[in-house]
Specification:
- The chain is mainly α.
- The protein has a two-stranded antiparallel sheet.
- 74% of the residues lie in helices and 6% in strands.
- The longest helix is centred in the first third of the chain and has 28 residues, at 10-37.
- A hairpin with a 2-residue loop joins β1 (85-88) and β2.
Length: 141
């Protein structure tokens, strides 16, 4: 038996998800560029988007990777409702909250480039907030 697709505004949902995944990629890239070159925010934006096609391309690839990860996590939590919550001693909490905290802890302990570390930390925190707000206030992924 086929599952029925929930009806929600797909272009709006796509736009929101693109915006939510754009922010971590932009913040991580700008932070690294501004720290490396010791420049202002405006100069960092110029260096990221106007000066070098390779830097811009790298940013776009990181943004698309964020989008794929974000959509995959959203689909997993939507399609497998059994993993949505953890129930302990009568309390029900969203499983993404402790899982996200554990992943952030692992990322902080790992020695990977700061661009990826900061990007994934911001992305995980954003995903945790997004799922929590979606659960609290409703809405579609």
């Amino acid at each position: 038996m086929l599952k029925t697709v929930k009806s929600y505004n797909i272009p709006y949902s796509l736009f929101v998800n693109l915006a939510v995944t754009f922010a971590p990629a932009l913040a991580a890239n700008l932070g690294v560029i501004m720290a490396y070159y010791r420049i202002s925010l405006a100069a960092g934006l110029g260096r990221l988007f106007l000066e070098n096609i390779y830097t811009t391309g790298y940013f776009i690839l990181l943004w698309l990777m964020n989008f794929v990860i974000f959509e995959a996590v959203g689909e997993i939590f939507e399609q497998v409702p059994e993993i949505r919550y953890i129930e302990r001693s009568g309390h029900r909490i969203l499983s993404i909250l402790p899982l996200g905290a554990i992943l952030i802890g692992f990322l902080l302990a790992m020695s990977i480039p700061i661009l990826f570390k900061s990007n994934f930390i911001i992305l995980i925190a954003g995903e945790m907030l997004y799922v929590w707000m979606k659960e609290k206030y409703g809405g579609g992924h």
